Amino acid sequence: MLDLHHIFIIQKKALFFLLALCILGWGLTPFGSIFLGIGLGAFFGTYNFWILTRRMDRFDRNLEKGKKTASLGTALRFGSGVAAAAVALTLPKYFHLISTIIGLMIPYVVLFIGSFVSLVKNSNNGK
Q1: Distance (Å, rounded) from C-alpha 55 to C-alpha 74?
Q2: Where on the phi/psi map is residue 64: left (φ > 0), alpha (ψ -120 to 50), or beta?
Q3: Distance between CA atoms of 7 and 1, rounded to whole angstroms?
Q4: Angle 27-8-22 (CA atoms, 0-180°, nearest 5)?
Q5: Which cellular compartments is it found in (predicted)?
Q6: Which pLDDT tens digit goes with each residue over 60-96?
Q7: Pair 99, 42: CB distance under 8 Å
Q8: What is the distance between the alpha carbons of residues 100 and 32, in angstroms, rounded to a whole number?
Q9: Which parts of the chain register pLDDT below 50?
Q10: Closest of 103, 102, 48, 46 to residue 72, by C-alpha
Q11: Local structure of 10: helix, strand or coil
């Protein structure tokens, strides 16, 4: 299974690829606000995944030392999602709200796909 840092590196690569596609979609199609919304949501979603990665590292270190950890940053990640939605609501001419929310979920879809691919590769190596 992949460790969290390796998954985050894959997430960043996927984000840059997606942002490039969103820029192309924004410039070349009449659906500019949808592509900008997806890009905005994916950016904030990757930020949320970075927060989760950092907090999981802290959680693991504290667990090894026998200390308690207050939280995994759920409130901060929730606030980031609210901020992305607030930007989309404030600037509806530029950002489509529903596509922003879909963009927020993209890093988790990439995480699921990466885990599935890793599982399939590991099961094929065992045969």
Answers
A1: 10
A2: alpha
A3: 10
A4: 5
A5: Cell membrane
A6: 888 888 888 777 778 888 999 999 999 999 999 999 9
A7: no
A8: 12
A9: 1
A10: 48
A11: helix
The DSSP letter of residue 5 is: H
At position 85, the amino acid (one-letter code) is A
Name, in order, each residue with C-beta under 8 angstroms of 115's C-beta and a sequence gap of 6 or more. 1, 2, 7
- Reference 15, options 100, 98, 110; nearest CA is 110
Which tokens belong to 35?
Answer: 């592509």
Burial of 11 (0-12, 13-18, 19+ CB in 10 A): buried
Measure the CA–CA gap between 107 and 13, rounded to whole angstroms.
11
Residues 6+ apart with CB under 8 A from 34: 25, 96, 99
> pTM of the entire structure?
0.83
Tokens representing 100?
């922003």
CA pair distance 77, 80, nearest whole angstrom: 5
93 class by beta-carbon count within 10 Å (0-12 exposed, 13-18 middle, 19+ buried):
exposed
